[in-house]
Amino acid sequence: MAPLAYKTLTPAIKNEVMNHLISVREIKKMQIQNFFYERYGDVNVLSKNPLVVQSLPRFSIAFKSGGFNDPSYRQVDTYYGPLLEHFIRQYGYNNIFLIDVEGNVVFGVRNDEYIGTNLVNGKFSSFTIGEIFKDGVNNIKFSDLTWCEEAKDFIFMGAAPVYDISNKPLGVIIVEVPYSKIDVFLAQRDGLGDTGEIYIVGDDHFMRSKSRFITQNTILKLEINTKATQDAFSGNTDVKIIKDYRNIPVLSAYTPLDNLRDVSWVLLVEIDVKEAFYPILSLKTNLIIIGSAISAITGLYLYFTLRKRLSESIPSEFS
User: Could you tell me the pTM of the whole model?
Assistant: First the structure.
């Protein structure tokens, strides 16, 4: 009965564990995709906001006439600055920049090293903000994760073109979205035990999230090139036992995040094999203990029964 019970229950337990990982993977995939859809919608709406459309050319004219210390610029900033700061609180951004058609960063809600520079031919033209500006002149564009020195954290940059009512280009609005907005999804590991982990890897094979097992920062620093990431970047979605970046056997449920427009990422949900299949080991151990106990009881019962019968049969032979 013990081998039969083990053979019957083991596949059911394995399927339950794998289905749980698949469920977590699909939930996290949907959350991340919805996050980017919402951010695209936010920056698109913001670029068309009358406050942005009105303020960008005014900031540009005032900046060109005398720089940030000019009375005309301070007047524009006094009127529009607090109103634009409201969008940071509303959308949860780190910062908002307004860039005119010539590439001049004419406004930032918060003081930043980019303010006053030119993103076409200035020192930041080859940085993420310069690249995102060039892409954002004609289209809504989001960057991959990048380091923000002012925030001392990783951010996404989103850009969208700004037009006036006659569809004349005025420039670009760029927003900084904090990494914490997406990290909150990955940090929710309910039901994944002590070794469960959810993380993202970019197409350069570097992590786009924090490792649960490494105290140092792993974002854009830890390279991961496992069989799971290779298969996911080939466009496959699956759940397999592999060796993870710690060289430990894990049950890995992985999938490409194929509906993101501007980044190429894969998502992995993993748990150590030892913990994932611990119920099977526990079942096996319990069946062995129960089987051993039944065998011992049966053996003792047979021993004493046979001994009793033997002792009863000896007197009758001498009578």
Answer: 0.84
